[in-house]
Task: structure prediction
Amino acid sequence: MAKIFIVIPAYNEEKVIGKVITDIKKEGYRNIIVVDDGSTDKTKEVAKKSGAIVLRHILNLGQGAAIETGLEYCRKVGADIVVTFDADGQFKANEIKKVIKPILNKKTEVVLGSRFLGKTVNIPFLKKLTLKSAVIFTDIFSNIKLTDTHNGFRAFSKNALNKIFINHSGMAHASDIIDQIKRYNLKYQEVPVTVFYTDYSLKKGQSIFNSIRILLDLLFEKLK
Amino acid sequence: MLASQIILSIIIVFFILKITINFFVKKNISSKFFIFWLFLWFLGLLFINFTPLLSFLAKKMGIGRGVDLAVYTSIILIFYFLYLINVEIYELKKRIEKLVRDLALKNLKNKL
Result:
């Protein structure tokens, strides 16, 4: 039986994290790691109460750093498959099995969820435009053709987990992961997933202006 | 050069030197950095008070006026320092990230 771990980076998500964890547990996954990225609300307490293992950052470092902490924990405990999942309730827990299936069948090393192959509910036009621009950017700079580059729903095999180390602490980590897939020549596959855009997730999510910062972060890293 | 210009430049450099020396005495900056700053301000003072020297250097480098050379050099230095500061901040962020991560994982060692 493969040891499957679900890593959820969370920052001030006390309102929804409980339901997200419960939904994942209902699907039969027991190893749920919540990385509380310096939240100022009760995210840690709610996550613990819901039955997750909570890793607490004493400072807010950013989503990339939170995922890396979760991945580091998974490396230490010898996880076979790691799934990254958003804390804001945008994903469907019952799609985890679909995301890990290609790794379980040894067909691929990394699975990337794609909202544009799957379903998006209530996606705002500007958001779609930014995400599509990111796809073009990735195609040019990372030389990988994908349909959705900044989707937090992913799965890594043990081999991929031991090769990919996230260097970007902020939101640019998504491009960083793709770069490393290419660098280490890891087999990857896109799987359609559903992404819900609720008022809550839109308020919490990335603004269009943030994408400019992500772009600058990436350029700095490439020039460094 | 007017006497007032010389006096003003000396006063400004004097105050900057005072701040630098204070920093050094309080051990906020290393002796290497202190000497570098002293040298830089000494050069500044030299060029302000002996403008023909700056004009001579500018002509040798194919730049028309001495003041142009001073402006170009300053811009290059400013960009270089900006770059250094950026790298320093990046390194610091990496170290903080490692520290925070180690702390997060340390508390769970027993559960591993």
